[in-house]
Amino acid sequence: NAGVTQTPKFRILKIGQSMTLQCTQDMNHNYMYWYRQDPGMGLKLIYYSVGAGITDKGEVPNGYNVSRSTTEDFPLRLELAAPSQTSVYFCASRPTGNNEQFFGPGTRLTVL
Amino acid sequence: SQKIEQNSEALNIQEGKTATLTCNYTNYSPAYLQWYRQDPGRGPVFLLLIRENEKEKRKERLKVTFDTTLKQSLFHITASQPADSATYLCALEGGGNKLTFGTGTQLKVEL
């Protein structure tokens, strides 16, 4: 199993550009999560999904959108990128009945 | 408002000693608490989970305690090694399939 994979690893965006951060897991987990982590800070939940077709907002959803059309994929869309979205983004998943979350390697995004 | 506090200052200890990290929380009634390890440039890795009705959990050199009266968890690493150097995050689940993370404590184990 590859676990949770994220692409790209790094990206620089200009203000106002859009992009999609990709997240895929091959463990057949129902639950998937998107977090952002700013320097010296804990992870903040952006969006999460409890299964294909179901998504819900986390603590900091503004400026982001998600979709969950399959169990494996949970892309995060940034529309009209702003400098405040400069951060490291982590995707995570977990199976039903197990509270342990499995994290991807992260995407480092800079908005200039 | 809900708050999770971990020591923001790095903890430096000597190899072989026991490292103790603290996680305090307010305005939470967590069903369980988790500890994760995060190395620079990597995603967090799960270490231990302890439920609200458990006082203590052990895994190899790791021990976690959970005091719901004090609203505190302690994370211990015995016989610490330089390879244990990392940032350790606590996370609480209060319902709704979501975790809330603390800011983490950086541990440095010196030879």
Task: Count interface residues per chain for the largest interface.
Answer: A-B, 24 and 21 residues
Query: What's the Cα radius of gyration of chain B?
Result: 13 Å
End-to-end Cα distance of chain A, whole Å, is 36 Å
Portion in helices of chain B: under 10%
Portion of residues within helices of chain A? under 10%
Summarize the main sheet of chain A: 7 strands, mixed
Poorly predicted sequence stretches spanning 5 or more consecutive residues of chain A: none
Number of strands of chain B: 11
In quaternary terms, these chains amount to heterodimer
How many strands, what sense, and barrel or not for the largest sheet of chain B?
6 strands, mixed
Low-confidence stretches of chain B: none
State Rg of chain A: 13 Å
Mean pLDDT of chain B: 93
Order of helices and strands of chain A: EEEEEEEEEEE
Categorize the overall geometry of chain B: globular
Number of helices of chain B: 0
Structural class of chain B: mainly beta
- Name the beta content range of chain B: over 45%
**Span between termini of chain B:** 41 Å
Provide an overview of this structure.
The complex is a heterodimer of chains A (112) and B (111). Chain A has 112 residues and is an all-beta fold. Helix content of chain A is 0%, strand content 50%. With 111 residues, chain B is mainly beta. Chain B is 0% helix and 56% strand. Chain B has no helices and eleven strands. Chain B has strands at 3-6, 11-14, 19-26, 32-38, 45-51, 56-59, 62-67, 72-77, 86-93, 100-101, 105-110. In chain B, the strands form two sheets. In chain B, strands 2, 4, 5, 9, 10 and 11 form a six-stranded mixed sheet that branches. Chain B has a five-stranded antiparallel sheet with strand order 1-3-8-7-6, with no helix packed on it. In chain B, strand 6 and strand 7 form a beta hairpin. Chain B is globular, with a radius of gyration of 13 Å. At the A-B interface, strand 4, strand 5 and strand 10 of A face strand 5 and strand 10 of B.
